[in-house]
Amino acid sequence: MSPSHHPETTRRRRGIVAGTALATAGVLVALGAPTTASAAEPGPTTIDIVDVNDFHGRIESEGTTADKAAGAAKLAAVVQAQREANPNTIFTSAGDNVGASTFTSFVQHDDPTIDVLNQMHLDVSAIGNHELDKGQDDLTGRIEDRADWPYISANIVEQGTTDPAFTPWSIVEKGGVKVGFIGATTEALIPGLVSPGGVQGLAMAPIVSSVNRYADELTDGDAANGEADVLVLLVHEGATTGARADAVGSGAFGQITGKVSSKVAAIVSAHTHAMYDHEIAGPDGTVRPVIQTGSYGMNYGHLRLTVGADRKLSGISAEVLPLNTATAKPTDTTSVDAVTKTVADAKAIADVKGKEPLGTITGDLRRAVQSDGTTENRGGESTLGNNIAEVQRWATERQGSQIAFMNPGGLRTDLVYASSGAGDPDGSVSYKEAALVQPFANTLVTEDLTGQQIKDALEQQWQPDGLERPFLKLGVSNGFAYTYDPSAGRGERITGMTLDGEPIALDQTVKVTVNSFLSTGGDNFAAFAAGANKADSGQVDLQAQADYFAAHDAVEPPTDQRAVGVTTTPVPAGGFQPGDDVTVDLSSLVFSNAGDQSGDVTVSAGDQVLATSPIDTTVIDKTDEQGRASLTVTVPEPGVALPAEPAAPSTASTPAATAVETSDEPLVVGLPNGQQITLAVTIPLAVVPEPGTDPGGPVDGSDPTPTPTPSPVPGGGGPGVGDGGLGGSGSGTGNGVVPIAGGAIGTADGGALAYTGAELAAPALAAGLLLLAGSTALVLVRRKRAAHDVGERAEG
Predict the structure, then answer these.
(1) pTM for this predicted structure
(2) Count of Cβ atoms closer than 10 Å to residue 500 Cβ
(3) Where is the composition biased (Low complexity) (predicted)?
(4) How far is it, in rounded angstroms, from Cα 669 to Cα 616?
(5) How do residues 493-525 score in pLDDT, each as one tens digit?
(6) CA 757 to CA 739: how far, in whole Å?
(7) Percent of residues, the chain, with pLDDT higher than 90
């Protein structure tokens, strides 16, 4: 049945059949003008199709190299030149024209992008997931009302039916040839890629069966269906890489290329931002082109169809070409001039809107710097990186995100507290200032990672040998922390990880947020490309930042260290004994660009401060090792225990002393900012009896040695942590890191964490403890030291 036979779906329909090209439409001179037969004469007709996908509002030129967006004016010139070379040219898109856009288009709700595509006379576009970022009403109302082209999708249906919710196909007639375009949208759209509230009443049908349904209808000889001579699929789904192996087989896209009806002459794909030009056989063995152009208008696709006088396809070819190096010079520049003006006007408006206040910060949010104090250090932990990671975790909480990571290269400038000009109060952050921090308009992607994959990603911060930047420090969100051994070998440096104070097991699954760049393995973080259940949230990083500012009266810079280097003296057989020396080497205790963080670091056990040392805040170039200290602790002698019973007046002899009871106490590092770090290394301390008791039982209450009042936790600071992170002041939940042992992160015997720090000090103080494990001394933290089993010592 024709779509026109479903009256309930026509509310979203636009013109099904498009007419011939407008007078201003036009070609690619670089391709050469084909020999085109008149529609009134017998002979073949050549149809050229210029295609883009995932344009994402890249209307401004970003440069002239192949890896930069060429901009709307360059694309307009290519399209116009192609139309001049062959009037039988069709301009198409495979979706995501809008959404995930850069600031110039984003700040105006992508209206400038729709306008320039109108000026280029876009003929038809598939519906991408980003067309539904703001819901179906925004697409059917604002976007479609402004757009002059039809949006099509055959497999977005009314929930509970097989009726298409949008126009499923469109026919464009050129030179007397009717080219039918069937649209389709990734089946992952619902649920996961867009807000559920915006797509209520919609559901996803299988792409293959939906496309095949309309392929049959458009070629069944019924003129009422808008009979097509040639069919092309515009599908917003694609292979994950440019490799042919990823475009065939049993995967989602392989099912499309292998099972979509061979009545479809070509498959033009999108969504994955990959670039490829394959020839793949359909279900009857007929080989057809399968292409995708990458993204952002860096490339364009060119299909050439040859249709005989009998209206049968007699030849087809395809290629993907770089847009920046195209030599298109159209004679009629009307459309190019109109696009150029639209882009210039949009930029002028964006410059004004960019001055509007977005939010407030209470202090600088800066990137890390090298030892010269000015050059960016992408190898250093930064307040800006951790803040942006937390913003992105917060923005994807509805998708279940638990941890977020931010690549340092995605941060292009700092957010500073001081006023940047007249009328700009201290602490105010403008739209433009936030946009300059993250100018790439990446979207936020959630995925499932195992603890092992998270560890692998952290290990990949140490980059492959020979690179200018040997280390790239990931920003991490609140609640996550880890320790590492800077002296260990590749792949063996991460010694512990926790989330909200609980250890992360290597086989545990965690929902993680990264930007779209990292999600594909950018910056050599291959572990992020291997995640399961990937879902693009549809949120641009800048929009997430704007929403975060709107939800917070003021944003405070994070001050806690979420990664600390720890190495300790190896634990001897039987554990440390009185008189033993224990050396604790620490690094990554300060930020390189967060003001004065000098002061003393202490190591204590129980209520005794055992060693103190100043922190060396010297910045170490290209790494995160600034903030170093080495402290040596001598395990104290336990002293003499109280007698089992008081001496009787009539007894002349002295009662025998009992053995001293000891308790294993962890070594606790205290930093000047109030952050506390509990090491997974213990030493024996004498147990001080409560008044009226002794190790052997109750006495008469005349204990001459009163229990001392616990001193403040070394390092000072308020209770707990500021915002669920580590250290700082205020209330909240701290993080714990325990050693990786026996293939899991947890206790060496596979049990629960035996010591949480709750007894170390007041509970509010203990909430902020970060349990860290040194690679050479990863031992169980136990309350009682009855015996030491060397076999249970964790290896880092």
Answers:
(1) 0.70
(2) 15
(3) 643-661
(4) 15
(5) 999 898 998 899 999 999 999 998 899 888 899
(6) 15
(7) 61
